[in-house]
Structures are given as structure tokens and as C-alpha cells.
Amino acid sequence: MDERDVGGEMSGITSHVLDLSRGVPAAGIGVVLEINVPQLGWRILAERTADSDGRVKDLVADGARLDVARYRLTFATGAYFAKNGVIGFHPQVTVEFDVKDAKQNYHVPLLLSPFGYSTYRGS
50 vs 37, 73, 98, CA distance in Å? Predict the structure, then answer.
């Protein structure tokens, strides 16, 4: 049984953002999910705000299927740091990734500080 089938809590694409400079989840950071549609370019699928734990679980609607395609997550890091009284270097962080198996969950964490970031494919 797929985790997405249990209580509808998981979607095909999720994220978790941690503010390493403060040692807390990046609650309230804006996240945009886009898909690259051949010959049409990038199309917005969802615009969300991370919850109090820095998680974004609902980027893909419950029951919707992923397409095999290139996706992009854009995190509003500049606005997040400004809201917290911090001057950051990156106004936004964009992470592109390929979905090659639409049946899998794609978890894309972001570890964030005012002057750098790291990301990886999580589980």
C-alpha cells in the first residue's frame, strides 16, 4: 500500500524546509510548484505556504496523478528572511527535478541559511 493511500496525507510531491541559521522549521515560506509542458513552457500547478513545521504536503491534489515530466519548486527565501528581519543573499531558491516514475513520491527538502542552501531527494 502506498503512503498516499493512507488518510490522504501524502501527495506525489512534498517538501520540508528547515532554517539552519535559526535551528527551526521555515514556517510560512512560500513555495510554488510548476511543470514544464513541452512547447508551452512552465505552468504553475500549486502555490502554497509551509505549515508550522516547515512542511508542504499538498502540492499535488489528493487523488491526482503525476506526469512523467520536469518539475520546478521555487521557494520565496528572500521574503521569508525579510519577514524574520534577516538580510539574505538569494531572493529565491529554485529546484528543478525530473519525475521518471509517476507512481513514486518525490520529497524535496530544503536546508536553508541566509547565504546558502542545500537540497536533495528525500524519502
Answer: 26, 13, 22
Beta strands in 22-123 (DSSP E): 24-25, 30-37, 41-49, 55-56, 69-75, 93-99, 106-107, 110-113, 116-119
Strands 13-19 and 41-49, how do they pair?
unpaired
Helix, strand, or coil here: 5? helix
Cα–Cα dist 55/24, whole Å: 12
- CATH code for the domain in which residue 65 is found: 2.60.40.180
Closest CA to 105 of 13, 29, 22, 16: 13
Question: In the chain, how many domains are there?
Answer: 1
Residue 121 domain-assigned (yes or no): no
Q: Widest CA span of the chain, in angstroms?
A: 45
What tens-digit pLDDT sequence spans the chain (123 residues)? Answer: 333 333 444 449 999 999 999 999 999 999 999 999 999 999 999 999 999 999 999 899 877 888 999 999 999 999 999 999 999 999 999 999 999 998 899 999 999 999 999 999 998
